[in-house]
Amino acid sequence: MSTINIGPLRYLEEPSQISIGQNGEGLRSFYQVTAPRDIAAMCKGRPAEELPRILTILSPSHHIASAKALDNLFGIRIPPAAENIRKALGETLTLIHHARKLLFLLQSSTNPPGTRENLRIAVPSSQRRTVDEIMKGIAAFQEAAYILGGRYPHPVTVVAGGVSRPIKEVHKRRLQEIARTCLPYALRLRDIFSETVIGNGWYKPINISFRPVASITSGETENEVVATDKTGAEAARFAPEKVLDTLEILSEPWTYLPFVHEKGKTWEGPLSDKTEGLFFVGPLARLNRATPLAAPPAEAERQRMIGCLGAPPHFSPLAGYWSILVELIASAEKCETLYSEENLSGTETRVVATGSGRRGLAAFEAPEGFVCHRYEVDQRGLVEDVTILDAASENNGLRSFLTQKIAEEAFAAGQPWDQAKKTIELSLVPF
Fold it and tell me: Which residue range is the domain that position 56 belongs to?
């Protein structure tokens, strides 16, 4: 049996590669995360208050999720000003995360999958101006993340019981300046996406339909979790405390990233062709619930997506990118309110814990998808156990499934593996 290694894969947060084995019976691909990540070993024995700063290594949104779990561990209700700062930071992280994903897509439009030119070719001047425009907006959002989170990409402001300090007046004024640019920037990205990806027909290489799978998202509030089936219909609704009773973690020896699937289902792992028990999370999972959006520009774009791709649920990388665009527009409109003077005013930003329980849990809809943190501590508040479900692990099965499909099609068509690599890279980014 011969083996082909394709990698490292670009654009993904986790260091990864594709290993493809060929024998007389066909082809089998392995999506492999190549860097070890033992989060529990890093956290055990430490004071629980340190976890929000440690767990930003997963993504900036885990900083907020960790603090929420500590709020529940210590039985704290945070002040309104702290809640507003957290919400503003969360939406800012969504803007950065989604804009970067779209930037990767639009940059690659100069040399889409299916062409053999090297990606280091010169970018046309018109395309270069577009990329510079997008990056300038991302820089402004990162400045807002610095103000709200203390630094970026590893924020430090959110702590157990609230946030570490109020926003200074000079920073409030700067946030209001950024707020005025958010929605125009998002609408400009919409126009670029419409012209470059949809209008020019560049979407075809990533319009790859995969087999329908279930999804998991937060409900209307963070106090409930919704599981939908393959048709997009609601299958279950339960409290965040039941998440770890509903889902199961599976490890494989050939990758450092575990797989998360539903308990009691017939999914037999990433090497199986079955999808029962497999699910995914993220922007597309959220839009597949077919809930109208409160922001009129975002709802208009969602309807345009439905008019082009049909009624949800959708299962393709193209739909994944489009859902990212829709959410970017919605977050941009929210930031106009969240960055306002009255929303960020208030000097009471933290409640100091006076007692502690032994277990704290929080579920949080991060930009990249649904995440869940559960901590167990001893009587001194030192961490005994940590369980974290993040979007990378929850989407690991789907990434493997999608990689196998693209590899099989490339092999059947006799396509060079460097072309297949580009398609795989861009197809995995939305998930």
Answer: 2-428
